[in-house]
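Reply to dn_fold:

You asked what the input looked like. This is it:
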Amino acid sequence: MELRHLRYFVAVAEERSFRLAAIRLNLSQPPLSRQIQQLEEQVGAVLLNRTAGGVELTEAGAVFLEEARRILNFTREAIEKARRIEHGEQGHLNVAYYGSVIFKVIPRILADFRELRSHISVSLRKMAKDEQIRALRQGWIDIGFGRSYRPEPDMLTQLVLDEPLFVAVSRRNEFSGRKSVALRELANSAFVVYPGSPRPGFADEVILLCDKAGFQAHIVDESDDVDACLALVSADVGLGLVPASAVSAHNNYVRFIRLANPRPTSPLWCVVRRNDERPSVKAFLETVRQFDATEQALHVRADDIHD
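and this is what came back:
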């Protein structure tokens, strides 16, 4: 039995006439009659009663008509879904992230992506960078976001943006009333860095920046992520360097001060499997490439800075 048998049967049943069904299907009537006979032989039941005025459904034919319509509808839906997936218009993506990217960057990218590809659903999960690489290789996730990925031959990284860095300090910190501060002015300060692992990571970027500014960072604590870092900062354990997106955390006990002279940045990356040619992944990467950080995601307004 083939799908054309079902289409022919549905046409005859709905038209109640072989002649009208043949016109609808752009067939001659004799071949259509033979196809219906073949169908009845395969089913093992009479589906249509031929009458002088046309055809009538038998009891078996009425049941078969309902099921035939359902099968044809399922087939049409399957074809449409396959076409949408082929053109990157439907599907599902599992996206992993780590760090402050969740505050502003990912929400804006996802909003841009959904505006262009509303039929592709996205799931988000927090995952450290090393875990992301393993999950990508095993197919658990499709895309990862983070900083300081190690080079991997089977992975492709795409720069999302370079975020300016801010100094996060407690209200009691000596710099809390400042509008901006040069990195070298922090030489005598205690630092909280993150993440403690895996390394290399953003913590190593902070240490290197301090080295370039002419001093060795005095690290008093290493936290798991930006949230824990800001919690320690709010307790005045030390100050922290954080990307601009972390300013959106809005901790009432933390103030964010602009770094200046020069103004350092931290690159944020997107990572995918190098051989992943799925249209949905390609469409997401294209959204990342077109991402406008200045106007959409990292425009830090005056009311974002607690000074």
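Residues 3-86 form a domain with the Arc Repressor Mutant, subunit A fold (CATH 1.10.10.10).
Hope that clears it up.
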